[in-house]
Write a structure and sequence with these properties.
This protein has 19 helices and 46 strands. The chain is an alpha/beta fold and 970 residues long. Among the domains are: 64 residues, no CATH class; 135 residues, Leucine-rich repeat, LRR (right-handed beta-alpha superhelix) (Alpha-Beta Horseshoe); 115 residues, Ribonuclease Inhibitor (Leucine-rich repeat, LRR (right-handed beta-alpha superhelix), Alpha-Beta Horseshoe), CATH 3.80.10.10; 188 residues, 3-Layer(aba) Sandwich (Rossmann fold). The radius of gyration is 50 Å and the shape is elongated. The protein starts with 10 loop residues before the first helix and ends in an 18-residue tail after the last helix.
Length: 970
């Protein structure tokens, strides 16, 4: 660290300075820090240099901060989006994750096991506006841990184990407006803790162990505080002297479940208070409000479950007589409520009364005769068996809630005179019948909720209800819809009929519903026969249709004569997933005909094995397509080609083995791709590049290969700033077996990366070296190289001739190998002596070779057709190409058969050192005995005798009969 004195300037500049230096610290831009240190005379240095440094840091951020985080999920493109949301909740984390993107605006680390937030955990998150850290085990937050969060507006630390709020905990949080510290173990709060929170508006400290109102005294001094929740803290006293001596801006004060013994207000400190919560307070509480004007602005009062006797509650209510508009009296019991209700109704300003959960079985007219001013009445969660008669005497009601009772019948008198009623809720009762005239006076009713009863269709919807916009008939006993059932509901926009027994829908049943936008028919018994014959023709403005969880099924993909949706050309959303036990099985090729405005299609779990190429030609503006949990093992590009504006594609659990069908599908606007629970092993780079706008990819639970075939995908997942791979660090390997279960991103792909330049260098160097070596060897060892070549050819011929000889036997006694320069000696000396006098038969090339046959083949055939091979050696012989080949073949026969088949005859005296270039010959004479033609004047009879003996040796191994070893050696 180094010191740099900031000039006395504005706070925004300071924040920018902190952001800049933070950027440097994180990415170690040391050269720029040194430059800043040298230029202390200027605040930021030159503007252009400042911008260039900031640009440098931003570029560097882009390079090192990938989209995928270990144990976190990112929402929003790091490259394009302004708001980056990071979700690290429910990951069993023990510490705040590292490498959170700098531009994160929302961070959720809730539901983990984090015990401490350190000073460095959240640095550089200058853009963070909301931090959620609930349901952890946080016991300590280091001072300054939030000091970098200069843009933070909401901080939620609820459901942790904090005990002390230190003085520097909220340092620099000048923009914080909402603070949640409820459900902790807080006992002490430093008097200066809340001083930096000059923008704070809402604080929740409920369910801690504060014990005394003095502990939160600093909160009341905050200039912007509007809402304070300090319930269930063991506070026994709430008095003006303990709170403030000045007027406050507080609008909501929540003191629920505190054992208050004294509530005393002796000054007008709450001139703006709008809502006061005193639920479940002590029955012995002394209520001391000396002037009704102190609470003249309070409009909402919550007395749920208060333990005070009725007379004390009555005295309390008199304090609010002039302003109170909403009163909650839940869970008091029937007796207490009935004792209070008359006095409650005398509050002229009261408009909303909630009597939920009081076990009320009946209410007489006398008990509520003065409640005519009410606009909203909540009688839910009681034991009413009929609609109370007093209801019809409350003509000003706008909202009536009778849910969760035991009402069985709705009569004509029950809602008589309620012409101003807007919302009527009767769901979850036991209603089995409704008289035809029950709703006749509800001319202004907009919402009617009568679901979860035992209703069937009759005429109760045909009278009144001219302005009804929303009708909920879910969870009843409806089994059929007939023409005219809804024709009087011409203003209806939302109709819910889910979870009934509907199996028959008569054509024209929806006639008159020209304004209907939402129709819910899910979880019924509707079949393909129920939606044919233009059933939906009376719904020209329908935008959402839910048909999932029914029994629609088709035997083939053949086009339908009357497609069910051909008149729904404004429909935006269609749900048809999960049809019966067998599924839909097939989608007719024109099933979606008419849906030219469709944007979202949910068609998962239909047991479909294939799709007709024309399936989506009728839905060119589809944005969201879900085909998950089908058996579409492979898809073709033709199926998806019509969907040029598709943004979300769900193909989870369909058995996909490859994503190659996406390459030419032209899904250039696809943002989200869900392909989890498939059989994908390799993610092709070409597939990813064919989806240029992809920002989210879900590949969980696939059979991914942990080898070099996925090295590109691994690197891309870690480094991509444009696309998030869902739970990337949790992806596991399936292949090879030794890595099964390991994390994919833990694979070391360093060995898979080939440096092309280095590879070219090595290849070129090797090629040049081999070329030079070959040239060197050929130049200095030319003869040896040539002989090696011949040796190889002889080896090839040898393996073929052995089989041939075993079948045909020997044709000649010897093959004569000689050079043409020595032909005169062979013809004048050798042949007359051995063929003429001794009777041997020889193979000679000029006499016995087959005309037109390759020379090499003739040589090989001659050698292997003869018992022996006589090589007539001279200097010309050694230089002859064909003689070399002959001796090579003979040598291979010799060493392969291990028999005495080679006779060497030297016509000249050739010293051993002169045989060096002909290393094969030299090796032979070192291992074998040879004959030499006598010098002029010497007796040749011994030579012919020895040669005859050599030709006459039997076919024995050289080891058993070394005949030539008895001959003389020259």
């Amino acid at each position: 660290m180094w010191n740099y004195t900031l000039p006395m300037d504005t706070e925004p500049k300071k924040r920018r300075w902190r952001m800049l230096t933070g950027c440097f610290k994180q990415f170690k831009c040391l050269q720029h820090l040194k430059m800043l240190k040298r230029e202390q005379g200027n605040y930021f240095f030159k503007h252009c240099r400042s911008l260039s440094v900031l640009f440098y840091c931003c570029v560097f951020i882009k390079l090192v901060n990938g989209y995928s985080l270990k144990n976190c999920t990112v929402r929003g493109s790091l490259k394009y989006a302004q708001n980056i949301n990071v979700f690290c909740n429910k990951r069993s984390l023990h510490a705040v994750p590292v490498k959170i993107p700098d531009r994160t605006t929302y961070l959720d680390i809730s539901c983990n096991v984090i015990c401490k937030i350190n000073r460095r955990d959240l640095t550089q998150l200058f853009n963070l506006s909301c931090l959620i850290a609930t349901h952890n085990k946080i016991q300590e937050v280091e001072e300054g841990a939030f000091s970098s969060l200069v843009a933070l507006q909401e901080l939620n630390l609820a459901y942790n184990k904090l005990r002390n709020i230190t003085g520097g905990l909220f340092q620099n949080l000048v923009n914080l407006t909402v603070l949640h510290l409820n459900e902790n173990l807080i006992t002490n709060i430093n008097s200066s803790s809340f001083d930096p929170l000059i923008s704070l508006k809402t604080v929740n400290l409920s369910r801690n162990h504060l014990g005394h109102i003095n502990k939160v005294h600093p909160l009341f001094l905050l200039p912007q505080l509007q809402e304070l929740h300090i319930g269930s803290n063991g506070i026994t006293s709430f008095q003006t002297s303990e709170v403030s001596n000045i007027s406050l801006r507080l609008e909501v004060l929540d003191l629920f479940q505190n054992p208050l013994k004294v509530f005393s207000i002796t000054a007008d400190i709450f001139p703006h208070l709008d809502s006061l919560v005193l639920a479940f307070v002590n029955e012995n509480m002394t209520w001391d409000v000396q002037d009704k004007r102190y609470f003249q602005s309070v409009k909402s009062l919550n007395l749920n479950g208060v333990q005070m006797p009725p007379e004390k509650i009555t005295g309390l209510l008199q304090t609010f007589n002039s302003s109170l508009a909403s009163l909650w009296l839940h869970h008091l019991g029937e007796g207490k409520v009935k004792a209070l209700i008359k006095n409650v109704c005398l509050i002229d300003s009261l408009k909303i009364l909630s009597l939920q959960g009081n076990n009320i079985s009946s209410i007489s007219k006398d008990e509520m005769q003065f409640c005519t001013q009410l606009t909203q009445l909540d009688l839910s969660n009681n034991r009413l068996f009929t609609v109370p008669e007093v209801i019809s005497n409350l003509p000003g009601l706008h909202i009536l809630d009778l849910t969760f009772n035991a009402i069985k019948t709705i009569r004509c008198i029950d809602f008589a005179n309620l012409t101003q009623l807007r919302v009527l809720q009767i769901y979850t009762n036991a209603v089995s019948s409704i008289e035809d005239c029950a709703f006749r006076d509800l001319r202004n009713l907009a919402t009617l909720m009568i679901g979860s009863n035992k209703l069937s269709f009759k005429g109760y919807l045909k009278k009144g209800l001219q302005k009804l916009k929303s009708l909920d008939l879910a969870h009843n006993n409806l089994d059929s819809l007939h023409k005219g059932d809804f024709e009087s509901l011409r203003s209806l926009k939302n109709l819910s009929l889910q979870d009934n027994q509907l199996s028959f829908i008569e054509p024209g049943a929806f006639n008159g519903l020209n304004n209907l936008i939402f129709l819910n028919l899910q979880s019924n018994k509707i079949s393909q026969n129920s939606i044919k014959d233009l059933v939906f023709s009376g719904l020209p403005n329908l935008k959402i249709l839910l048909l999932n969880n029914n029994y629609i099924s088709y035997e083939s993909q053949e086009a339908l004569v009357h497609p069910p949706f051909q008149y729904l050309n404004k429909l935006k959303t269609l749900n048809i997933f999960s049809q019966g036990h067998k599924g839909m099985r097939n989608l007719p090729s024109n099933f979606f005909e008419g849906l030219r405005s469709l944007e979202e299609l949910q068609a998962e779990n239909l047991n479909i094995y294939s799709l007709h190429p024309d399936t989506f030609t009728y839905t060119p503006y589809l944005w969201v397509l879900d085909l998950s949990r089908n058996e579409l093992i492979s898809l073709s590009k033709e199926i998806l080609l019509p969907l040029q504006v598709l943004k979300t594609l769900h193909l989870s659990k369909v058995g996909l083995q490859s994503l190659d069908f996406l390459i030419q599908a032209n899904l250039s606007k696809l943002h989200l791709l869900h392909v989890s629970k498939n059989a994908l092993s390799v993610i092709n780079e070409t597939v990813i590049h064919s989806l240029p706008t992809l920002i989210y990819l879900d590949l969980q639970e696939n059979y991914l290969s942990c080898d070099c075939s996925n090295d590109w995908f691994i690197n891309w997942t870690i480094s991509s700033n444009d696309t998030e791979v869902e739970s990337a660090y949790q992806l596991t390997c399936n292949y090879p077996d030794k890595l099964k279960g390991h994390k994919l991103l833990d694979l070391d792909v360093g060995s898979c990366n080939i440096d092309v330049g280095f590879f070219c260098f090595i290849s070129t160097t090797t090629l040049v070296s081999l070329t030079l070596l070959s040239s060197f060897l050929f130049h200095f060892l030319k003869c040896q190289v040539i002989y090696t070549y011949y040796l190889f050819l002889a080896f090839l011929y040898d393996s073929r001739q052995q089989k041939k000889r075993k079948l045909n036997g020997f044709q000649y006694d010897a093959f004569i190998s000689y050079n043409t320069h020595d032909e005169l000696w062979v013809m004048r000396e050798l042949l007359p002596q051995l063929e003429g006098e001794q009777g041997w038969r020889f193979c000679l090339h000029h006499r016995d070779f087959e005309p037109g046959k390759p020379i090499m083949d003739n040589i090989v055939d001659g050698i292997y057709s003869s018992r022996k091979t006589i090589c007539v050696i001279s200097r010309h012989y050694l230089e002859s190409e064909w003689c070399s080949r002959e001796i090579q073949v003979a040598s291979f026969r010799l060493f392969d058969e291990k028999k005495d088949v080679l006779i060497l005859v030297f016509l000249e005296n050739i010293p051993s050192h002169q045989l060096s270039p002909y290393y094969r010959m030299r090796r032979l004479i070192k291992k074998r005995t040879y004959l030499s033609w006598p010098q002029p004047g010497e007796d040749v009879r011994g030579f012919w005798q020895k040669l005859g003996m050599a030709l006459g040796t039997q076919r024995t191994t050289e080891k058993e009969s070394p005949i030539l070893s008895n001959f003389g050696v020259v």
